[in-house]
Amino acid sequence: MTLPENSVDQGADTTGVIQRVLVVDDSRLQRRILSASLKRWGFEVYEAESGIEALDICRDFPPDLVMSDWMMPGMTGPEFCREFRQMTRENYGYFILLTSKTEKDDIAHGLDAGADDFLTKPVNSAELRARISAGERILRMERELNEKNRLIKSTLDELQTLYDSLDSDLIEAKKLQQSLVSDRYRDFGAAEVSLLLKSCGHVGGDLVGMFDVSPTRIGLYGIDVSGHGISSALMTARLAGYLSAASPDQNVALYKTVSGDYAQRPPAETIAALNRLILSEMETELYFTMVLADVDLDTGKIVMVQAGHPHPAIQRADGSVEFLGDGGLPVGLIEGAEYQQFEVSMAAGDRLMIHSDGVIERADLKGNLLGDEGLTRIMKDLRQTRGMACLESIVWKLSEFADDQDFDDDVSAVLLEFKKASIVI
């Protein structure tokens, strides 16, 4: 083994990517001839007289370039090259085989062993310098590519960290959004109310809820904010405050009477008020659809407004299903929009479902939407299934219809089920 001398010729170019060169040849004379040229060009040169000795040098001082004789005792050049390629390295090492062989099969054998280039012995100095320059261009591209890959990996690691942080925040946001629907089921005696809220992502733009007005009156609503994701979820949080069940003073659907009790405004007035609030107080391009219902538990009379939301479905005690409303305008699109109320009477065994478009716009594998007809079939199939079990079964039926457990839109619903006979007034 011959280690490099400390001195380097003045004016030598040591700025290239090839700086450390290993010369492997069982002929001491051949090593000296090659080393002399390499040192004159400014390279740090190591010498080895066998493949075994060369491997030891490669472990301690990984070379940028290896020049190895083909025919050597003990371990041939191709065998040494194959071992060299199996070594763990930070950067690629360029390998040139020195040989007198010119047959194509021999060259193919050398390439298969991992050699990058060949030089015919005796080595011409000008040709050697040209082959080194070619190798340097390849190594430079490899180093530049490695650096770019390093930067890409570093950037991806940073993005992954940001994604993990965002994902953690969204998980917490989902918990907070789900907490907006604190009561998923309530038994009011005369009727039962069940709520479903299933976001297609961490957070979504659907919202359902109920609030007490008096011992015999309740309000119900279903909302679907345009778009998906964080901005839509923030809008639902704002709307939940406007229709708060816990703070009636903040609920725009309620007003305090002279006696100090609360009463519900006509649903058309409430939605018109929400339309004004959205357009005047929120600088956003978001809008939402909605159904708001004023339910009289004593009489079974329900006053509703449909504002661009899917038609509410009423299923009578005999299992028949009908859809209510004329559509109406979404909220937050047009100033001064007017909304029309309509009424329906419920009897014992009847139930009303207010649902988002994620239900009826569920598509099968052929792209066919479930629609009102499909929802009618599902409600008839689940005629004997009540409460939360009914809503959970609807979600299962939607998955079965699409042959997919994942949802590409939020799904929400309010299910009102009457238990007592109505008293028509």
Textual characterization of the structure:
- With 425 residues, the chain is of the alpha+beta class.
- The protein folds into 2 domains: 129 residues, Rossmann fold, CATH 3.40.50.2300; 239 residues, PPM-type phosphatase domain (Phosphatase 2c, domain 1, 4-Layer Sandwich).
- Helix content is 37%, strand content 24%.
- It has 10 helices and 18 strands.
- The strands form 4 sheets. It has a 6-stranded antiparallel beta sheet.
- β12 and β13 form a beta hairpin.
- α2 runs parallel beside α3.
- It is rod-shaped.
- This is Transcriptional regulatory protein YycF.
- Keywords: Coiled coil, Hydrolase, Phosphoprotein.
- It holds the Pfam family SpoIIE.
- GO terms for molecular function: phosphatase activity.
